[in-house]
């Protein structure tokens, strides 16, 4: 029993950054473990700057951030889930359903605040359902979230009758289309979400418990950590982030489409894994996820500027995901051996 407690405590201490220090130390902690992916991203940027026209222009760099906002915000929630060795495949359908219901409410006369609350509420409810099913009903996360992916997409089509919903308040559309100091609101929102995620994951008892569960769930339970409750909450957090992503996406487009966010779950999981979060749990962080999101966005943008066929863009993205998972698996084998 004492050995189990010691193991869990050590895992929490490894995940817990030292306090204090200035901006340099803060960014160093934020990017802990993300060194290789940062280098890869910088190399990619250098290559594209030399080969792709207009890559380094302010407008294009801003566009990369805007296009990555939906993936980035959803990836924050997914990071919590994957660190616990779970998975959430329902992200795309959660974003679509939350955005559609919020759009229907606003089209019917609801204001901006009501629309935002509906989207956040629906996303959180989906996350709560996932958490309840995995922790109380003890169904495998992959199966649960795969089923919710299908149910959510079908419900989106049903409530919308397969039609696009539009006519949102101008103040709502401004969230995804406006800017301040020349920087889009979406960039500020995304950065804010990542900072909150970082603080919760790295600076709170809850965050340390998330790492402990991912490192060894049984050891964490025997050490007194409420594993079911923590696991339940990470899915609720993922759902909340999906709801916010729905607000970002629909305000950016000025409409809600039944096909919105199709395949988003794969891009989100890819960003998290590429950023260094292990699919086996217990390892990862918000800094790595942020760089993973930027790498995917930069890669897609650069290949588009180079007039590469969209089919090849998807192939290259898949190849990058494969390499990230392979590296993660090899690292686990080396540590185990």
Describe this structure in words.
With 337 residues, the protein is mainly alpha-helical. It has one domain: ABC transporter involved in vitamin B12 uptake, BtuC (Orthogonal Bundle). It has 15 helices and 4 strands. It has helices at residues 2-15, 23-30, 35-51, 58-83, 91-107, 112-135, 141-160, 170-177, 185-203, 205-215, 217-222, 227-253, 264-274, 286-305, 310-336; strands spanning 165-166, 179-180, 183-184, 255-256. The strands form 2 sheets. The chain has a two-stranded antiparallel sheet with strand order 1-4. It has a two-stranded antiparallel sheet with strand order 2-3.
Provide the fold topology:
Elements: H1 2-15, H2 23-30, H3 35-51, H4 58-83, H5 91-107, H6 112-135, H7 141-160, E1 165-166, H8 170-177, E2 179-180, E3 183-184, H9 185-203, H10 205-215, H11 217-222, H12 227-253, E4 255-256, H13 264-274, H14 286-305, H15 310-336
Antiparallel strand pairs: 1-4, 2-3
Question: What's this model, at a glance?
Answer:
The protein has helices at 2-15, 23-30, 35-51, 58-83, 91-107, 112-135, 141-160, 170-177, 185-203, 205-215, 217-222, 227-253, 264-274, 286-305, 310-336, and strands at 165-166, 179-180, 183-184, 255-256.
């Amino acid at each position: 029993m004492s050995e189990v407690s010691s193991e869990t405590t050590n895992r929490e201490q490894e995940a817990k950054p030292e306090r204090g220090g200035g901006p340099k130390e803060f960014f160093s902690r934020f990017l802990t473990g993300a060194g290789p992916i940062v280098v890869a991203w910088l190399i990619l940027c250098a290559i594209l700057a030399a080969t792709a026209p207009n890559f380094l222009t302010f407008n294009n760099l801003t566009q990369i951030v805007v296009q990555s906002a939906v993936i980035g915000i959803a990836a924050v929630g997914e990071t919590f889930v994957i660190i616990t060795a779970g998975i959430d495949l329902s992200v795309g359908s959660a974003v679509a359903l939350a955005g559609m219901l919020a759009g229907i409410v606003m089209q019917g006369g609801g204001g901006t605040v009501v629309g935002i609350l509906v989207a956040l509420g629906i996303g959180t409810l989906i996350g709560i359902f996932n958490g309840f099913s995995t922790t109380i009903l003890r169904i495998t996360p992959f199966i649960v979230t795969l089923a919710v992916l299908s149910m959510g997409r079908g419900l989106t089509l049903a409530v919308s009758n397969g039609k696009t919903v539009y006519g949102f308040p101008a103040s709502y559309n401004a969230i995804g289309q406006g800017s301040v100091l020349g920087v889009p609101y979406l960039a500020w929102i995304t950065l804010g979400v990542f900072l909150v995620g970082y603080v919760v994951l790295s600076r709170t008892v809850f965050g340390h418990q998330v790492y402990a569960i991912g490192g060894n769930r049984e050891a964490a339970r025997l050490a007194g950590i409420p594993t079911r409750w923590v696991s339940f909450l990470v899915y609720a957090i993922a759902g909340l982030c999906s709801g916010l992503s729905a607000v970002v996406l629909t305000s950016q487009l000025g409409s809600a489409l039944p096909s919105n966010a199709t395949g988003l779950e794969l891009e989100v999981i890819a960003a998290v894994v590429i950023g260094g979060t292990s699919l086996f749990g217990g390892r990862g962080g918000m800094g790595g996820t942020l760089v993973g999101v930027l790498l995917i966005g930069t890669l897609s943008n650069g290949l588009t500027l180079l007039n590469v066929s969209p089919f090849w863009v998807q192939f290259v993205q898949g190849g990058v995901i494969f390499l990230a998972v392979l590296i993660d698996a090899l690292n686990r084998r080396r540590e185990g051996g």
